[in-house]
Amino acid sequence: MRLRALALGVVASLAASLAMNLSALAGELTFWHAYSGQKDKVDFITYALDEFAKAHPDIKLDVVAAEQSAYKTKLNTAMASGNPPDVFYTLPGGFLGAFVAGHQMYALDADLAKDGWGESFLPTALAQTSIGGHAYAVPIDIDAAVFWYNKALFAEKGWMVPASYDEFLALCEKIKADGLVPMALGNKDSWPATFWFQYLEMRLKGSGLVSDIVAGKADTSLAPEATEAFTRIASLSSKGYFPVGFNGMSDQEANMLFLNGQAAMMLNGTWQIGASADAPEGFELGFFPFPAVAGGKGNPGDVLGGVAAAFGIAEKTANKKDAVTLLRFLTSPAVMTKYVELRKTMVTVKGATTEAAAGPVLYAISNDLMSKAGKLDPFYDTAMPPKGTDAYYTSLQGVLDGSVAPADAAKRVEDALKAK
C-alpha cells in the first residue's frame, strides 16, 4: 500500500511537471497589472496587450487586472503563497525589494545586455529598479512632483510665481486674504502630503537620503532636518493654507477645488496634467519647481521624481523566454510613446516622450526641468520598506492634524527606516 501510494505520488509529480513544461512550450503566461479603475491606464494596457497579441499570436496571456490598492494585497498574497504570476506590475524601492530579498524575482541583467535593450532606458530610471547591482524589473514611467498653479487666476489677481520658499509663504498669505485656499490637498490616502516633507528634506539637507538608508549606509540620517521639515509642514497646516478637512479629503476632491478656482495651487505629480484635462473653460495649467529654502544645504535644482511603475518576472516562471519578449514589447519605443500620448506621463525609454505625444506642459517639464535636474530623488514612500512607509504615513498625518509633534514624527520615521 505504501509503495503504491509512493508510486502514485511520483506519477502525480511527473504529471504536474509535464503540464508545467507543456504550458511553457505552448507560450502561456499569467500577466497581472494594476491599471484597473482609471480610464487612461485602461486605455493604455488595452492598446498594449492588443498590439502584443497581433505581434505574438503564439503567446497566450492570462490577464488579471486590479486597482492599485487591492493589487498590492493580491500580489503580496500570491508571492507569500509561492504562486506568483509570471509577469507582473510592481513598484520600485521597498515593494520590489521585499520580493528580491525573498529570492522571488528573476534578474534581467543578461537580457538587458542583449541588442541594446538596457541602453534604451534612462540610467536614473533603471537604477531605481535595480538592487544590489542587478536589475529585477524594467521601469515604465517617471512621475515628477512640481507646483501646479492656475495661470488664469494668477494673471487676474496679479500674483507672481515665487522664486523662493519665503516668497511662496508670502504668496499663500495673499491668496488666503483674498478668500481662496492657497494649496489644494486631499490627504485621505496619506501619500499626497509626502511631497511636502520630501521636498523640504531635499532642500534642507539634500537628495538620496532614504535610498542611502535603505541601502544600509550607516552614517546617513534624516535628522535634524527632518524635524525642521515636519515643523514647517505643521505651520502650513496651522496657518490654514490647506482646505478645511484635508486629512479626510481624497486627492480627487482636492483636485476639483483646484480646477474650479477655489484653490490657487497644488503640489502634485505630473499625472496632474491628465487630471486637469476636464477643467472648466478658461482654466490654464502652469507649473513651477519647488523653490529654494533659505539656509538649506540641498541643491535647489534637484527634482522629486521617480519610477512610478515597473514590470518584472517571477523567478519561478518556467517560460522566461516569452516573459522577456513581453517585457521588451511593453518597453518598445512605439508602445512607450503611445503611453505618453494616452496618459500624458513621462516614460523611461529614451526619446519616447516626444513633444507631439506629451503636449506642451509635460514636454516642458521633461525638457526644461527633468533634463537639467542635478538629481532625481525617488519617492520616499516607494523607496522605503513597508514598515517605514507605514510610519511615514501615520507620522505625517499626525503632524498635519497636530496630534504628533514634529520631533516625535522625525524619530518615528528614522527608527522605522533603520529597524532590522
UniProtKB/TrEMBL annotation:
Keywords: Periplasm, Signal. It is found in: Periplasm. InterPro entries: Bact_solute-bd_prot1, SBP. The keyword Cell membrane does not apply. The keyword Signal applies. Residues 1-26 form the signal peptide. PANTHER family: ARABINOSE-BINDING PROTEIN-RELATED, BLR3389 PROTEIN. Belongs to the bacterial solute-binding protein 1 family. This is Extracellular solute-binding protein. It comes from Labrys neptuniae.
